[in-house]
Every structure is written in C-alpha cells, then in structure tokens.
Design brief:
The chain is mainly α. About 70% of the residues lie in helices and about 0% in strands. The protein has 28 helices and two strands. Strands 1-2 form a two-stranded antiparallel sheet. It is elongated.
Length: about 700
Amino acid sequence: SLLNNDTNPFASESSLSATDEEVDKFLASFVNDVWELGEFIELTLLSRIGSFANLTLENPSAMKALIEAVEKYEVAIVEYQDYENQKEKGSLKITSIKEAVIKQCRRDFESKSVDVFTTIHIYAADNADEDDAYGSQLTATIQAATKLVGEIEPVRKCFPKDWEIDLHWSLCISNVCSSDFLQKIGGPDGHNLPELSITLLLDLITWVEFFCETFESAYPSIKEKNPGNISIESRPDLLNGDGREINPEDVMDGLAWAKNMLWEVHRLAKEEFLVQTRNQTDSFLDKIYNDKGAERSRSETADGRLITSLCEEIFAFIIVHLRTIRDHLPAKSEIFGVAACIVLSRMQLKQIAHHEHAFDDLDSCCAAANDFDRMSERIEDMVTKFKEEGGISQLSESLIDEACRELVSLYSSHAVYAAQSVHIYVFEPMHESIADELFSAEWENDLTHNQLSVGIVRTIEDFRCDLEIYLSDYLLKKALDAFVTASVLFYIQSLLMKSEKHTLRTISCFNDTTKALGRMKDDIRIMREYFEGHVETMPALKRTIQKEFEVLTIVCEILSSASAGTSESVNEATNFVFVLHKQFSDVQITKQFIGDLWHLVAPSQELGVRTLIESMEIQLKSLSPPGSEMRGRSSVPGLRLDEMVRKLYSQSKRRRPGKIKDRVDGARRRFSTEATALKKRRNSLIQSITKKPVNLS
C-alpha cells in the first residue's frame, strides 16, 4: 500500500518523482522485516510442529490451515516480485518457506511409514505367544499395512496437487509394505508360507488384492506397467531419507514394481492356500470316514429309514470350512470359486475311496444308501444357499455348479450302488442252502411243484418287505433291479456248477432231460412272474426283467437244442453263439459257457460245439472290439454274468475235451516251424560254401 500514491496520505509531489533506488531504500527496512519474519515462520514450522505426517493424519484441518498460510505467504512474495519488475532487478529478496515445508513433509512421511511398522513389530513381539510368534508378526504387518494404505486418500485430499506429497507418501508405503511382506514370507520364493495357517494366508491374499485395487484406482497408469523382471535387484532405489524431490514418472515405476512384486506374493500365497485347503479337507474327511467309521452307529428316522451320522459329520465340517474361506476373502474374489472346487473335488475322491467300507451287512448297505442319497441333496442345498447369500462371482458360480453336479451324480450313483449291494446278503444264504439242491435228482423227480424256485421268491419277498421300510421308493426300485439280475445269475451259476460236477462224457446229467427242461422253464416262469407282479408300482422294472430273463431263455433253448444229441444240433448252436458272445465279449469264455451247457445234456457233442465256436473266432472278435466288455454294465459286485463266469472258470478243475488235441496240434506246428527254419539255415550254409544254389528238395 506504501507504493500506491492514490491511497498513501503522506504522498507528495516530490515523492512522485522519486527514483527506483530511493523507493528501494525506503522499503528496505520493511522488506527486511518480512524476510526475517519468513525465516522465523520457517524455523517455527520445522521445529515446533514435530511431524507434518502426524499433523496431517491426526488433525487434517490444522494441516490445511498451515498449507493455506504457506500458500498465502508465497502469494505475497510473488506479488512483490511482480511489482515494478523487482524479480528482474534482484535488489530485494524475500525468504520462501514452501520448499522447506514440502521437503520436510517428504522426510516426515517417509519416517512415518517406517515407524508404523517398527512400532507394531515391537508390540507384536512383546505380546506374541511362543508357538505363534511368526503368525503374530505377519498379522501385525497386515494390520500396519492396511492402516497405511487406508491413509493414502486422506493425504491426497489434504495437500495441493502440485506439492506431490501424496505421490511421495504412496511410494513410501509401497516400498515399506513390499519389503516387509517379502521378508515375512521368506523371500521371493515364499519359504515361510507353509508355516502360515489357512486364515493367515487368506488375510495375506486379501490384503494384496486390497493394496493393488487401491493403488490402481489412485494411479491408473500403473495398470499398464508390467515389467518382465520383478526381482529384488530390479527394485527402483528412489528413497534415501533426505526428502528430495522425485520425478513423478520414476514414482510410477516404483509403484508398479511394488504392485507386481506383491502380486507375486499373492500368487505364492494363493498356491500355498490351495495346497493347504486340499490337505486340510483330506485330513478331515479321512478322519470322518476312517476314525469315526467304527464308532458310527446306525439309527432310524421317523419313517423307519436306516441312516448314520456320516452326512451330518461331513457337511458340518465342509460348510464351516467354505464359509471361513469366503468370509476371509473380498466379495466376488475368484479364489473362492477355485477353493470351493478343490473342496468339492476332494469330497468326490474321498467318497470314491471310502464308499464301500460301510458295506458289512444288509443294514449297513441300506444306511449307506440313505446317507449317500441325503448327501446328494445336501450338497445341492449347500451350494444354493451360498449363492443366495451373495458375494460369489459369476465365474466362481459356474465352476462351483459344475463341481456340484459331478458330486451330486457321484453321491446318487453310490446310493444306488449301496442299495443294489443288498443282493449280496440276500442271496448269500441261498447259495449255502439251495444251490446244491437245484438240478439235483430230487429237484428233477420229487419237487414237482418247483418248491426251490418258490422258496427263492419268498426269500426275496421277505427281504423286499424290510427294504420297503429301510429305503426310499427310488432306492427300493434299484434294489429290486439288482434282485432280478441276481436271481438270473444265481440260477445260471447253479446250472454251471452242476456241469462242473458232471464227469461222464457220454451220458446226460439228468435222468430225463425233457422233464428237467420243463422243470427249468417252470422255475424261470415262477421267478419272472414274481418280479412282474411289481411292475405296476415300478414300471421301469419291466425293462430289467425282459433284459435279464432273456439270457435264461437262451440257456433253455441251448439245452433243448443240445438234448437232440446230433450233429445237426451242433450246427444249430451258431444261432446262439452270437447272442451270448455279446454278454461275454471273450471268445474263450463264450466257448466254455456253451460247451458246459452242451456237456449237461449231450456230453459226447461238447467237442463238436467247441470246435464250431473256435472256427467262428474271427467273426466273434469283430463283434467285440477292445473296451466294449464294460460298456453299459453294472459295477456292483455279483451282478455281471461275465464276471461270475470268469470267476467260476478260474476255479474250475473239470477236464474239457480238446485240450490234449490242442497240445498235440501245437507241438506239430512248432516242430514244422523249427524244421523249416533248420532247412533254411542249412541251405544258406551250403550256398555260402559252394557259391551255387543247391536244391535239397
């Protein structure tokens, strides 16, 4: 205002002609006062405030007022320098405090980032348990790092953009966090990660995602910076504690390095987490299936279904396990989908490994069937509930749905497997009490009312009535499917055992073959009619009956044809060979099976029919390519005709015709081959001596 003549009451005409030098001389005392005031303000700010970082974070309003004062002071300097080109004259200079304040801010924020970690580490070390000191240190690091990252935005809002304090603060945070986490996990290779619990690994993974999301949101340019080398040696060395100004582009490079290094930590932690998730799931499931299996008792539901606590034990653990993982991860994290799929896949593998261990008797089979059926429903309910609660990404939902479908399918198939395994304990006593009586002389001559087949269906009915209480309608139907197959196999096995024990090579094992065949047809009719009696309530059973009893019909036709005992009847066997071969997919088994049936009623023609089948070997093999023998067949023990026949023949001691002849023919072929080779060698030797071809024919 002293420079303005319009407002200065002391201005006179003489002063209007004053030179610049006189004005400077007049103002010198005032400027010196301002200059000294600037130095005083600077000294006061730097010595008495303590830490600009603490002031910013604890009292941002005060820091904003200070910043405003500094900026105002700078405006006064600029205004003076602009007056009459004082800056160009350089005669009077006023102290600037902005640069000193900015520099001190950089120092304070750099110290702040280090002090936060140092303080919290000391506290964690003093209060940690000896058994969990490492975990406590990492937890403290995560807490400190979270606090620091959360303070980036308040600093950005407090300081003017041209001060670039937020850049420096962010660089300090990224440096100290990346360094500390690398140290905690045991270096770039993560040697200490196996010592962490699943929850700590999840906390670490979550923090890295939080860090990267925060920094990429604040500084979008670092998203595109993906350096190929993120080793410790490639880390930009930008901070040295002196508060010097750093080029913003270099700061971005430093932030990008820290982000990419922490993503590497994220990758290592994720891999270790998934490994531990798999191992922990395996450990718990093994304990449930193995350790508690012997102690697990059966109980009945209100409607009489037999169950155990297997379903409740497994899902009590799985639900808590998955919920813990989900709650420790940020919403929509893709890691949850991967972890859930690992858990579900381990459930699948453990179920495959252990599902048969519970089959000790009929009751345990029923309880296992109901348990597995409930587990198939429970897994769908669990996944649906997780999806309804939200927080799962679309990709994770897709992965979990696919794994869930596979597990539901497995549990359902094992429920059917367990229900059908009941047949073992239904037919086992019949093998001991009835098998030897079937096809005996008493069966042929005295049991004119087919008492044995009637006994078979009555036994099956008694068990069916029990199963009607123990199993659901769906599983009961599957059990009855198994009973149909088991009845047919039981009858055929008893017939083959009769052939095994028949040693006469010219006489039928039956006194009256026609009567025996009639008795067989009546037995088959009685069993078939029993099962057909349940078709009305179980329509799908009709198809099983038609398929399984077709084999018995073919067996009866073969015996009827063979009973003629002529060469024409042997030739007629061709009609049955192709049909039966589809059951066995093995030429030798087909030959053995049909040969044994022939041996029952026409032993003298057995060799002829075996020779006929051998002549058809090429045709039969073309009908059964490799791998076709298992296609569409049951995996339940005791429900496959080919397996039953193979097992029977592996224990057979009966001498079948054609074996000696085969040995003789084989010896003749070997002798002929060796003789031909010897002739060739001798001819070659003579030629090498005489150099002339020699005819030794």
